[in-house]
Design goal:
Blueprint: H1 2-7, E1 25-26, E2 37-38, H2 47-56, E3 60-61, H3 67-76, E4 82-83, E5 88-89, E6 92-99, E7 106-108, E8 132-136, E9 155-159, E10 170-171, H4 177-180
Amino acid sequence: MLAAALVAGVLMIPQGINGQYVGLIQWTTGPGANGHYYPMTELAGDYRDVSAVAATLGGTLASITTREENKFVHDSFVEFGTCSAVWCFPSTFFIGLRRVTPGGPFAWETGEQLSFTAWNLGEPNDFGDEPVAHVIKGIPGQPARAAPEGAGEVFWNDIPFDRYEMRGVIEWSVRPSALLAERDPP
């Protein structure tokens, strides 16, 4: 159901940093800008759902390779956190970081080198089989825990594949013009 809705070209139109609604955000300015395009999935799902949506749309869940990209992706989608009946975070979403084998090392879906990490203190801890990662920035009403040096204020946590549903940030290195031409003209 989730994939079908997004295959039809339905993507969330997030509110950008300057209050502008955009269907696709391109990182073109600032330190580390890579020119890549980032939308967020419209619907929440488990990791496998949102990863499949990204693949169907010709992308992957975002591979965050620098502190600057970590901050850019977070700040671009900060207004669209995920809440459930059990928990609520002001800004959390899946990225393309997961274990290839149970208990093995984390790797990007793209196969890119994992040279930058922003794990929260004590993470990844694989508590109860947690093979995928999501971005998080603090918990309402609780002080933010310090992330490792270099991570900035936005950090990652490992969680189970299917226990939580949240949105995912998709990344394309080139503009997916054929797919999004009607929704987001150049």
